[in-house]
Each structure stands twice: as structure tokens, then as C-alpha cells.
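Give me the fold.
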Amino acid sequence: MRRALLAITGLAASTTALVVFKGSPGTTQVAQNLPTAQPVNPSGPGTDPSAAPDAPGTDPAGGAPTPSGSTKPSTSPKPGKTTARPSNTRTTKAPSAPRTTTKAPQSTTRRVTGNGFENEYGYVQVQIVVSGNRIVEAVALSLPSGGESDIHSGDVRNRYDGGGGEVVQKQNASLNTVSGATETSNSYKQSLRSAIEQAF
């Protein structure tokens, strides 16, 4: 028995020496031709070794990765206005709306006084009230007075003056002469004509 053990030991030693002796010159070449050792997959064949069971976002039962509650699907930014302005560009200001000024409508009614005229009985001057392009009233500012002149001046005033007199009815100075007051009537017409010329 001891001899058999020694024989096996000697055989093993000589084999080892032979392997070392023959393997030394080309050891590096043999090592280069050997396939690279692959990492051992503890989960067994057919599974991804990079997906460790304890890695976050993976199902502990070995299923597909589960989305984390804190992660949200990425949304592309909405198209909006860009604040960047290309260089060498001028910004034109939008034309402002024209200003509208509201003025109070001017009164179209006005008073126009004609020139005064003197005759042998006294001084005559007439004023008219005009609204738009129409005479609406006539007033004798001055007529001869004293004696019979008061009577004749009263007749002229009654015929020509007021809103319903002959001046408003005819809208001109072509008035009928008042009987007994020819001079005063003519002076009235002259003053009225000058007022109309100023008004229109």
C-alpha cells in the first residue's frame, strides 16, 4: 500500500514538472487564445445580470422594471413666444389709434348786429338772430323817437321785428315799406342788409 501511494505521488510530481517545463515558452500565447471568462449570472441562465433584484425600479419577482412613483413622463415644452430677438433688427412701434377729442357742440344760434344808419328823423340799427342758415328773429335796437316818430317807429317794429315778422318770413331785406314811415323803413332795410351780409 505504501508503495502504491509513493508511485502515485511520484507520477503526479513528474507530470507537474513536465507540464511546467513544456508550458513555460508559450504560456502567454495559450492564455491569449483562451476565451475570456464571463461573469457568473447568479440569477441563472436567460436573465439579465445587470438587472439586480434589489435595483430600484425593478420588480422583486423578476418581472419588467416598474415605473417609480416619483418619475413623470417627460413632456416636450409647449411652443411659445421666444423672447430672443435677432440682432440688427429694428422694432417698429405699432401706429397708435388717432386721438378723438370730443368737443361740446357749439351753439349754432348767433346774434349779428347790422350797421347803424341816420336819417332826418333819427338813428336806425337792426340786429338779427341766426340759427344755422336761417334768420329766426329780428330786433330793432334803435329807431327814431319823439313826437310822431314814436308812432311810425312802432309801426315799423310791429311789421318787421320778432320771430313772426316780415324779416323772418322773407329771410331777406326785400321788405314792404311801412306807410307813413318811408325813411325809417328804408334805414331799417339798410341795417338789416348789412347784418345779413355779416351773418352769411
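The first helix runs from residue 2 to 23.
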